[in-house]
Amino acid sequence: MTDRTDQTIKALRTGHDELTALVSGFTAGDLTRGSGASQWDISQVLSHLGSDAEIALGGLEAALNATGAPGGEFNQGVWARWDAMSPAERAEAFVLANGTLVHRYEGLDAPTREQLRIDLGFLPAPVDLATAAGLRLNEFAHHLWDIKVVFDPAATLAPEATELLIDQAGMLIGFIGKADNLHGRTVTIAVHTTSPQRSFGLDVRDTVALIQTPTDPDRVLTTPAEWWLRLISGRHAPEHTPATVQLTADTITLDDLRKVFPGY
Fold first, then answer.
1. Which of 22, 61, 130, 259 is in Cβ range 3.0-4.6 Å of 181 for a Cys bridge?
2. CA distance linking residue 9 with residue 106, whole number of Å
3. Is 252 in contact with 219 (CB distance < 8 Å)?
4. How far apart are CA 173 and CA 205, in angstroms?
5. pLDDT of 53 strictly over 90
6. Average pLDDT estimate for 80-99
7. What are the Cα distances from residue 105, in Å, to 17, 98, 163?
8. What is the pLDDT at residue 176?
9. What is the DSSP string of 171-226?
């Protein structure tokens, strides 16, 4: 688990450095441009990442000091402060807040990385650092894409993040997938990803679940791993879907899968 934790922290550092470099070149107009997150401009994406970095750091420090997780009032105060910032203030504050969190992760020694348990507040039990940092990486990687895609419609998720996130994609899929959006239709799909290569099944019935690779699937989806991750997070518009994504289908289409994963 420590190796995965180490790799996740390194991916968070790479992502932070990349986004910090982008932010340094943004004009005032860039910060108020709409982002890949449809309801937010770029400064609001930075605000979301920065405020959640503060909240994640608060939970990390509480776990390290055994003081108990900060409560909802702490989170509300953080969000209110960031909401009140100007776009330029959000950009500057993001660099500081996210950099502080990543630096704190990097400073943890090996025994702490292995033994620490963190109460995230929304899961039934405290989780290890690999899980906590992995959830942060999932959020960060997708919101980095939300910003990059404004300037490059063919933008992809960072390879370092994709390598790690592909194996934790099932953690929340029952929550983010909306089986009802198929209006009673059911389907079992064999999913084969590239870069990295993985094979598994997607089962849409009363709920949405990942299963072992089915031997007799209804359909077969072949896709770059990074697009699979963007699919299930709702970042799957046709204009941002590479030609290498292929679904053997007639009654179930890519647009149907987009409905199953409307985003969150």
1. 259
2. 7
3. yes
4. 13
5. yes
6. 98
7. 15, 11, 19
8. 94
9. GSHHHH--GGGGTT--EEEEEEEETTTEEEEEEESSSEEEESPPSS-SEEEEEEHH
Average pLDDT over residues 117-132: 90
| Residue 249, pLDDT score | 73
Using a 10 angstrom Cβ sphere, with 0-12 exposed, 13-18 middle and 19 or more buried, the burial of residue 38 is exposed
Nearest CA among 229, 230, 231 for reference residue 254:
231
Classify the C-alpha dihedral 82-84-89-90 as positive or negative: positive
Neighbours of 25 (CB within 10 A): 7
Contact between 55 and 73 under an 8 Å Cβ cutoff? The reply is: no
**Contact status, residue 240 vs residue 230, Cβ threshold 8 Å:** yes
128 beta partners: 117
For residue 1, the model assigns a pLDDT of: 54
Q: Where are the alpha helices (DSSP H) in the chain?
A: 2-24, 28-31, 42-65, 72-83, 87-106, 110-115, 129-151, 159-165, 173-176, 225-232, 254-260
Question: Three-state SS for 84?
Answer: coil
